[in-house]
Amino acid sequence: MDKPVLFAYQIYLIVLFSIIHSAQGLGKIIFAVNAGGDSHVDIYGIKYQKDPLEGKTGIASDYGRQYLNIGRVPEPDAILYQTERYHHSNFGYDIPVGEDGDYVLVLKFVRFISTVFDVTLNGVHTIVSYLDIFEKVGKAVAHDEYIPFRVTKGKILVNDEESELVGKKIRVEFIKGNQDNPKVNAIYVMKGLLEDVPKLPPLAGSEGDEDDVEEKPIEKDEPSSVPQPSGTSSTSPKKKREQPKIINPYSDETSTLLPIFVAIAAFVPFLFCLCKL
């Protein structure tokens, strides 16, 4: 891709990300770490701290810095995917959770070779199973995992399972595979709902199926109202696809469509630049 085209595309991504952010509320960030790297504030205002495991557990790597452009990510936030922490055995992060409520754990990954591993929450719940980032999105392309969970009365509810919350902390752990080392590029936990979390854009040339967020049920006594088709695959056997929202016919259509109009307006200059080249 020519440099002018690439630059125009990066500007368009930044504008589009800003529009999406302005159209949605961002919940309270209670934990954010740039694994293997320094502190960073992303385009949404999320403040990632320097990796607290530095010099304690695992190995920090900045191998990704040789890739100046990470797919699906605006250039200012590429740093979150250019550094990572990996280990030759299991490793994890302890995350303080002091209040009852809904939360979303976001795990950020990018891979340059195929690596397969699992991720667990609180030592009990397998929240990501047999994750092969390279197979999912390819080389040097970002992939995020979104895991909703709920804390209530000293218990954690996730994947239609529950476990005890000990010391007002949860632990996310990356489990070594048979041959591969586990890794992660960045992590954050937001107090809020899945719909409040900024999502990566769809893969280029796809219909966005790869990045359909699969919401995991958190209520044990709440059956799915829509049957799932057989043969649907996911990273976790208990995941269920989030059902499309029902639009309120009495809502203000102007406020609903405004972000779309702005996005179209932002796209026109980008299209003009392509035509001029």
UniProtKB/TrEMBL annotation:
Keywords: Carbohydrate metabolism, Endoplasmic reticulum, Glycoprotein, Membrane, Signal, Transmembrane, Transmembrane helix. The chain crosses the membrane at residues 257-275. The keyword Membrane applies. InterPro entries: Malectin_dom, MLEC. It comes from the Eukaryota. Residues 224-236 have a biased composition (Low complexity). Coiled coil: none annotated. It holds the Pfam family Malectin. It is found in: Endoplasmic reticulum membrane. Residues 200-247 are annotated as: Disordered. It is a single-pass type I membrane protein. Residues 30-187 form the Malectin domain. The keyword Transmembrane applies. GO terms for cellular component: endoplasmic reticulum membrane. One of its GO terms (molecular function) is carbohydrate binding. Belongs to the malectin family. PANTHER family: MALECTIN (PTHR13460:SF0), PTHR13460. This is Malectin domain-containing protein. It comes from Daphnia sinensis.
